[in-house]
């Protein structure tokens, strides 16, 4: 399959990253269908699309008219068979739990056309761990998105074909993203392995009582001239996703303060404060405190 033949993208998971990926695909002319087992997640998709669209317009990455037009290219489907029909690329963006991803891949492997390329937007899992639930191992890879128009990570599985990798590189470039192909597997790819360490350090400082959440973010934002700190970033990742990532890394023996981090995040998760996707995490959205004038000057 050539990139010119790619027309329809199926996104499985309507959370933060599923929303971000859907809007980016639609902005670049792809027809997108979003599936989620949660009707609440599908109902909240419009809010998240508008949130990302607004921020990208403010950042000068697109125009409001383009965002409005792109929304007409996105539709939702509660029926998995409807989402799978005629999909050229399927992008999995569900929770960071291996058993959940396996269930999704087994289900859609049976429903999608043979030509469909499968990818996972995993943040920390290995392609070789996920591919075991698929028959189409030659048409499977990890394809991890970051901020819009930056970098897309590509990680092969044990049998990913060169043709599949090339198509995914072209697909990434078609959305003004730079494809970075891993030389070999590693949890978190390149950027995310560094990113996870940054987030872990921020949470550890707050969990240990060394600084307030806002001050930890201010410190990073002011020194590095960044629009958010680790806790603003965690709200985009999703607090539940961050907890799952830590649990997974702990299970594989990677050193870190995973238990303490899990305990720190637990009260937020139990209250449903998961970040941008629920409208509240460490901050409240769509107008988080760290984005307000004067935040960096407050004590």
Automatic annotation (TrEMBL):
<dbReference type="InterPro" id="IPR006108">
    <property type="entry name" value="3HC_DH_C"/>
</dbReference>
<protein>
    <submittedName>
        <fullName>3-hydroxyacyl-CoA dehydrogenase</fullName>
    </submittedName>
</protein>
<dbReference type="GO" id="GO:0016616">
    <property type="term" value="F:oxidoreductase activity, acting on the CH-OH group of donors, NAD or NADP as acceptor"/>
</dbReference>
<feature type="site" description="Important for catalytic activity">
    <location>
        <position position="144"/>
    </location>
</feature>
<dbReference type="InterPro" id="IPR008927">
    <property type="entry name" value="6-PGluconate_DH-like_C_sf"/>
</dbReference>
<dbReference type="InterPro" id="IPR013328">
    <property type="entry name" value="6PGD_dom2"/>
</dbReference>
<dbReference type="Pfam" id="PF02737">
    <property type="entry name" value="3HCDH_N"/>
</dbReference>
<feature type="domain" description="3-hydroxyacyl-CoA dehydrogenase NAD binding">
    <location>
        <begin position="9"/>
        <end position="183"/>
    </location>
</feature>
<dbReference type="Pfam" id="PF00725">
    <property type="entry name" value="3HCDH"/>
</dbReference>
<dbReference type="InterPro" id="IPR006176">
    <property type="entry name" value="3-OHacyl-CoA_DH_NAD-bd"/>
</dbReference>
<dbReference type="GO" id="GO:0006631">
    <property type="term" value="P:fatty acid metabolic process"/>
</dbReference>
<dbReference type="InterPro" id="IPR022694">
    <property type="entry name" value="3-OHacyl-CoA_DH"/>
</dbReference>
<dbReference type="GO" id="GO:0070403">
    <property type="term" value="F:NAD+ binding"/>
</dbReference>
<feature type="domain" description="3-hydroxyacyl-CoA dehydrogenase C-terminal">
    <location>
        <begin position="188"/>
        <end position="285"/>
    </location>
</feature>
<dbReference type="InterPro" id="IPR036291">
    <property type="entry name" value="NAD(P)-bd_dom_sf"/>
</dbReference>
<keyword id="KW-0560">Oxidoreductase</keyword>
């Amino acid at each position: 399959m050539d990139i010119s033949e790619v027309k329809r993208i199926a996104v499985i998971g309507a959370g933060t990253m599923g929303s971000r990926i859907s809007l980016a695909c639609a902005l670049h002319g792809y027809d997108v269908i979003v599936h989620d087992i949660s009707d609440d997640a599908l109902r909240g998709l419009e809010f998240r699309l508008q949130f990302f669209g607004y921020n990208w317009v403010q950042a000068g990455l697109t125009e409001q008219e383009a965002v409005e037009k792109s929304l007409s290219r996105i539709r939702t489907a509660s029926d998995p068979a409807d989402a799978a029909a005629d999909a050229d690329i399927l992008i999995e963006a569900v929770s960071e739990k291996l058993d959940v991803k396996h269930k999704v891949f087994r289900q859609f492997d049976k429903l999608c056309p043979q030509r469909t390329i499968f990818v996972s937007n995993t943040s920390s899992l290995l392609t070789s761990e996920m591919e075991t639930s698929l028959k189409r191992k030659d048409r499977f890879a990890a394809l991890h998105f970051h901020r819009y128009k930056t970098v897309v990570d590509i990680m092969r599985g044990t049998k990913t074909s060169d043709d599949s990798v090339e198509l995914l590189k072209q697909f990434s470039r078609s959305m003004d993203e730079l494809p970075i192909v891993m030389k070999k597997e590693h949890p978190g790819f390149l950027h995310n392995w560094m990113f996870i360490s940054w987030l872990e350090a921020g949470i550890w400082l707050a969990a240990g009582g060394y600084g307030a959440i806002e001050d930890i973010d201010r410190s990073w934002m002011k020194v590095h001239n960044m629009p958010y700190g680790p806790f603003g970033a965690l709200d985009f990742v999703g607090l539940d996703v961050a907890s799952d990532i830590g649990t997974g890394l702990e299970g594989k023996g990677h050193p870190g303060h995973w238990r303490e981090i899990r305990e720190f995040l637990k009260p937020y998760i139990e209250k449903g404060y998961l970040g941008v996707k629920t409208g509240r995490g460490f901050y409240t959205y769509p107008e988080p405190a760290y984005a307000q004038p004067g935040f960096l000057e407050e004590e």
